[in-house]
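User: I'm putting together notes for a lab meeting next week and I want to include a structural view of one of the chains we've been expressing. I don't have a solved structure, so I'd like a prediction I can at least talk through. The sequence is below, exactly as it appears in our construct file.
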Amino acid sequence: MNEHQIREACSRHSGLAVLSDATLALALDRVADRFVNERDRVRWWTSLKGDIEVDSYGTADGLTLLRERLRGVSSELTLVITDDDPPPWLGIRGELPELLSLLADLPCCEFFVFDDRQEWLLFDTHHNELIVARKHE
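Assistant: Thanks for the context. Below is the predicted structure for the 137-residue chain, given as structure tokens.
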């Protein structure tokens, strides 16, 4: 899956916006400062700080588990599709239902999502795990 395919899929979903490189870079700097020990790693989820929770979902539907984990989130979210590749990554803003719909339309891929206040960071990994890091004071 390449960036063009993701952008094309985004265009079919109202309410989603692909972030500019500059906007995404600022958001990723803040997220990395808060949650990531070694930001030069491709898989940030292997170097998280804060309170960490791991949910293995095996062959179950990861998007259903994601929906359950984020139930009640009403703010816009930022979705970053990494697909197990090094940066630059693609960032997409939108409400949870639209982001879930987009993810359902894409081939399985690694991604992470975070809220506006960056109180949590959630990864879906190639090990079929949801990993959540929460702000640690």
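A couple of points you could mention at the meeting. The chain has a mean pLDDT of 91. The radius of gyration is 14 Å.

User: Perfect, that's what I needed.
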